[in-house]
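Lab notebook, bench 4. The sequencing result for the construct came back, and we need a structural model before the next group meeting so we can plan mutations. Quick request posted to the team channel:

Model the 3D structure of this chain.
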Amino acid sequence: MTDLWIRVRVNLFSALLALSKGVESFYIMRENYIKVKKKIKKWHIVIFGIISLLIVAGVVFFQFTPIGYCMSVKYRNFTEVEHNIYVDKPFPYVTVNGHGDLLNIDDNGITTIVKEARNRVSDFFGGKLQSDPVIIISDYMDFHITYTVSLHKLFIYIAISHKYLNVDILAHEITHAELHYRVLNGKPFRSERAFIPLWFDEGLASINDYRKVMSEETWELKSDTTKAKDATKFTRADLYGKYSDDEFFNALIINENFLLCRHEVKKWIDKNGINALLRLIDGVRNGKDFETLYNE
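Done. Here's the predicted structure in token form:
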């Protein structure tokens, strides 16, 4: 009887010990669960915060920046007149050009301007254009500009307001697009400025811009002190140092900068020929130094 009682007591003690350890394990597991849950909650908050910031940044970029606005044009209320030509107004509409003239615009008028500008640039480069920029005609931006975005592939956008829509200005921008494409195609995450200086980019584009303000006659008038009191003696050295947008597009000297760049690049092409230009473009695309090629 005594042995039986001893065995009962031992078994009971063992059961109580096991129960105690089980309760202890339960509380340890509960505490670990609470800690993990807190960590998961913190990560949820962090992840939610990151996603929210990305969404806000995306909205700001695509809605409130010019380049973002251009990149999302396919999802906006624009009319696609033709492949890669978008207009923000239904046809026909009346607009005012840069000279203050009223113009009646329809889809045929748009495509005619674009076709003539493309043909001018194509002829200049000696054949078929390699680039196919998205042309966006909108008063969202009251100017004209070419945006080149080099990601996993090359995206080129030409944004132009209605009052600047003419063959000369569009040919100017298409020349930028063609040059950028030939230099950057196959070069992801690079900028055209890593290959060519701003003055050459603008000088080349200005050659296909036939407006009087860009003409050789205006250059001669502005640079010949015997013909105009406000004329300035320009030299090629004036080009250097004008690599930044702020320096080049200074409103006080912008016209003179365009004239100087156009004159310099045109003189170089007249001397060396279009084939030399194409070789220079191919050369800088393949990693050769622009200044070395230009001065050969």
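The radius of gyration is 33 Å.
Will bring this to the meeting.
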